[in-house]
Amino acid sequence: MSMWKQAIEDAVQKTRANIEKYGDLFPHVSNDGKYLLNDNDDWTDGFWSGILWLCYEYSGDPVFKQAAEKTVASFRKRMDGKVAIDHHDIGFLYSLSSKAQWIIERDEAAKQLTLEAADWLMTRWREKGQYIQAWGPTGDPQNGGRIIIDCMMNLPLLYWAYEQTGNEKYRDVAVIHADKSRRFLVRGDDSSYHTFYFDPETGESIRGGTHQGYQDGSTWTRGQAWGVYGFALSYHYTKNPLYLETSKRMARYFLERLPEDDVVYWDFNVPVNDKTERDSSASAITAAGLIELLSHLSADDPDRAFLEDGLQRSLKGLVNGYATIGKPDAEGFLEHGSYHVRGNNAPDDYMIWGDYYYLEALVRLEKGIKGYWYER
Ligand code: GLY
What Pfam families does UniProt report for this protein, alphabetically (predicted)? Predict the structure, then answer.
């Protein structure tokens, strides 16, 4: 059995056990090897849904389909009740739940729910400033003028809504936001700010900053990972070569800084000693993003060999050093992810998005099953 197949089989087995354990709740992050469970009210809840859909596509076992459909019903309720959806992470939530169901089953109700989600994401668009506001209400003194790099992974919902409806407003907003992210979040040396502030009245740029990184001018590794994958997806939808170039350059920055075991620390600028936390989820996102990026490069692209080597190193590093393969009672797939190290919020354990991207990368390599960021 190949190394990838063994890792997938292990993850599928764990998911089977977790369905029983979690019931109607959603896993989020952990501190002590047990996922914290919540109702469907956090930004992370789509990842559990996505894991269930990937397990279903990989195995064909209806137990995963039933569990995944149940999560979509929960996302329907969440939309109806407008429960904790006043932020930009609608793309993460609904791409991996209802959009996945649409892609796999061509379920019309799931498609309609996903379009509603896209409309809801559009309410985060700030006309005066010309950006999608990440967090908080309009006019919020802290966050009213703030964008974050993670949003690059929410844009596919808008591009997809344009494809489905022909309404250009979705694509136009996504493109303006992607251009702004490229210009202000990605720095001249291909590193990235986690967040950037604008004047909400005029759209004038103010400064870069961070929320979860080490410091304002540092490069939070997960932010860099969101950029690698997010710009590759913007390229998929628009074919704008600048997005492909940006994804490539951000990937090179990431891969040139891999530590000995090929799994990154939580920030590229944090002083490293034997206690410094890793973020295995950043390496998992980058691995999945590299597969997407490579799918757009020609066979003789000068960067192909370097990126392919980086993909192999990242995924092997995760499977060999961080995966819970051979620990049948473990809930998560990947140890040593970090949510918010400086905030001491789940600084070193399982992260449900790390598990999702790890499995997405593995099943795409092993069986050609893609994630749910665009139509197949
Ligand atoms: N998108 C939030 C995070 O990566 O922690």
Answer: Glyco_hydro_88
DSSP letters spanning 105-132 = H--HHHHHHHHHHHHHHHTTEETTTTEE
pLDDT in tens, 67-86: 999 999 999 999 999 999 99
Total Cβ atoms within 10 A of residue 13: 14
What is the Cα–Cα distance from 327 to 321, expressed in whole angstroms?
Answer: 13
Average pLDDT over residues 332-353: 98
CA distance 43 to 28: 9
* Ligand 1 midpoint to CA 150 (Å): 6
Please give the number of the atom of ligand 1 that sits closest to the Cα of 212. Answer: 5
Q: In the chain, which residue ranges form alpha helices assigned H by DSSP? A: 3-22, 45-59, 62-81, 90-95, 98-105, 108-122, 155-165, 168-184, 221-238, 241-255, 280-295, 304-321, 352-367
Q: Is 87 in the pocket of ligand 1 (CB under 6 A)?
A: no
pLDDT at 1 over 90: no
Select which of 150, 262, 348, 355 is catalytic: 150
Candidate CATH numbers 2.60.40.1180, 1.50.10.10, 1.10.10.10, 2.40.10.10; the one for domain 3-367: 1.50.10.10
pLDDT-derived band at 275, boundaries 50, 70, 90: very high
All structural domains of the chain with their residue ranges = 3-367
Share of the chain above pLDDT 70, in %: 100
331 within ligand 1 shell (Cβ under 6 A): no
